[in-house]
Amino acid sequence: MSSPAGGPVFADRVLNDWLSSVGLGIEYSRAEANTLYYVDEDGQEVPVLDHVCGFGSLIFGHNNPDIVAHAKTVLDRQVPVYVQLSHQSHANDIAAVLNAILRREIPGGDGDYAAIFANSGAEAVEICVKHAELERRARVAKLTDETSRNAEEAREAVGAGRATVAENPYVRFDGASGESDRLEQLLAEAGRRNAELIARGPVHLALENAFHGKLVASIQLTQNPHWRLPFTSLASSTRFLRADRPDEMKAAVEELRTSLLDVLVDDGVVTVVERDFPLVGAFFVEPVQGANGMRPLTGAAAREIRAVCDAVGCPLIVDEIHSGMGRTGAFLASSHMGLRGDYYTLAKSIGGGIAKNAVALFHRDRFRPEFEVMHSSTFAKDGFSAAIALKVLEMLEADDGRAYRIAAERGDRLKGALTAVAADFPDVVDAVHGIGLMLAVEFKDQTGASSEPLREKAASGMLGYLIAGLILREHRIRVLPVGPAGNSVRFEPSIYLTDADIARTENALRDVCTILRDQDGDRLTP
Ligand code: PMP
Fold first, then answer.
1. Which residue, by CA, sits nearest to atom 2 of ligand 1?
2. Where does the sequence pass through the membrane (predicted)?
3. Same domain, yes or no, for 209 and 306?
4. Ligand 1 pocket test target in 59, 344, 348 with most atoms within 8 Å of CB
């Protein structure tokens, strides 16, 4: 229901005004499969083809009848929904299905991942941030135990006159009154430096133009500076690496190398050895970078990312929140690139379009069991969304994975149509990116356009929204811009996309391309 006309507006005041200004200010009243409906001024229901589909959370479309029917029976059966701290076998049922799928899809995978449930994608990412920090802290504790032991041994050896303290670059030993004094000065300095290092938070690795959520920790993994920079003081920092330059990754990570000072006795001499310190918390990766205009990782980047994580010893966290659950034609998009993760995140389509659910999966070799009680949330792992998740998984896996095959086939068909438009408008379209039902058309930069409105909108990053507004107004198709410059338009419909939908989409895109080619800026303005 919309707010009474003229009444005070408490929610979305700025957002709604802005949506109206770009031609996207519509309230939808009904939704099914790939179609949204709104009611026009004459009271008529107007269908809109939805290519946004809940930002990729509707692999089976809006209000899928099988999922809705299942939800109704779940509610009718009075299934317990919130029963925290009791045995909730549905959590294990979901994890068992996920592990069977992971075993099939992950190269060399053993399908042994522990599951922690969450309410949203960003929460699943933050769960991974926390778990990676637990792992890192354990490695730091092991290191500091060793350095403490070595320091004690040095004390004993120097006290017994079995060792002397060598000159070193860390302390000048001014005014030291003997070997024990020199050692204490050295240990104090090493201890001071080590304490400083240990007090620093981790540095995370992610790819340029990554999107991993908007909560306190996850926003630091999302590169967009407008969303990230105001909050840098709240969480650990991220080093963003270029996915298109895998050859540069090792060198970039090498720059983060830092060491703990270990004071030990070697052949009767107390020396200082630098030990690699685990500064890097984790490497977060989207197999298909949604917010970067639906760019899939290359095989070379995937291999390099795995190699970097193995070299550094940090977990590789494959964020499949957007790309997972079948959208790319496999359950995990990362399986296309042969990328094996230590942790995985899933969300969006696991909610079946009617529930909120997310899960983080941790390989058993790394999982710290105490985490099961360290992280919890009132609503996570609830009986209702779990029942929906099991239904979605059953639908995905049915008929030997028919849904994945449809996603791949429909995606190929849609990509073919988008590519045909790109081929006919090379002056206007830069490229078509993506895989399966995770696609984007990237338009050429219009900041140097001859049409003033086009130039202006492109400079303010608004061109993509105006294109979306026009496609909605004139073609009754809902798309949204994506990509760091907002130059791309995203397509992530459900598997029920028809040939007729694809033909309409191609027609609308040709219209937009003609406007851009003709520099007809006025037509874009609502
Ligand atoms: N990671 C990825 C890859 C995403 O695409 C998203 C959402 N677009 C998130 C994390 C955050 O998920 P949510 O919006 O549910 O918090």
1. 212
2. none
3. yes
4. 348
> Per the domain annotation, does 393 fall within a domain?
no
Residue span of the structural domain in which 446 resides: 13-63+401-524
Residue 376 has pLDDT above 50, yes or no: yes
Class of residue 267 by CB neighbours under 10 A (exposed 0-12, middle 13-18, buried 19+): exposed
| Residue 294 beta carbon below 6 angstroms from any ligand 1 atom | no
| Closest to 69 (Cα-Cα) out of 346, 403, 406, 387 | 387
pTM of the model: 0.97
**What is the C-alpha separation between 448 and 445, in angstroms, rounded?**
7
> The domain spanning residue 329 has which CATH number?
3.40.640.10
What's the pLDDT tens digit per position in 19-50? 999 999 999 999 999 999 999 999 999 999 99
Cα separation, 359 vs 118, whole angstroms: 6
Q: Is residue 392 part of a domain?
A: no
pLDDT of residue 526: 78
One domain, residues 358 and 423: no
Residue 3: pLDDT band (50, 70, 90) is: low
pLDDT at position 1: 40
Report the CATH number that the domain containing residue 492 is assigned in CATH.
Answer: 3.90.1150.10
Q: 112 and 43, same structural domain?
A: no
Candidates 514, 510, 521, 509; CA nearest to 447 is 521
- Dmax over CA atoms of the chain, in Å, equals 98
> What CA–CA distance (Å, rounded) separates 103 from 113?
10
The answer on pLDDT for 128 being more than 70 is yes
In terms of domains, do 464 and 342 share one? no
CA of 346 to the centre of ligand 1 (A): 9
pLDDT for residue 13 is more than 80: yes
Number of domains into which the chain is organized:
2
Q: Whose CA is nearest to atom 5 of ligand 1?
A: 322
Give the model's pLDDT for residue 4.
60
More confident residue, 42 or 108: 42
User: How far away, in angstroms, is 291 Cα from ligand 1 center?
Assistant: 10
The answer to whether residues 332 and 367 belong to one domain is yes
| Same structural domain, 333 and 236 | yes
Answer yes or no: do 489 and 377 share one domain. no
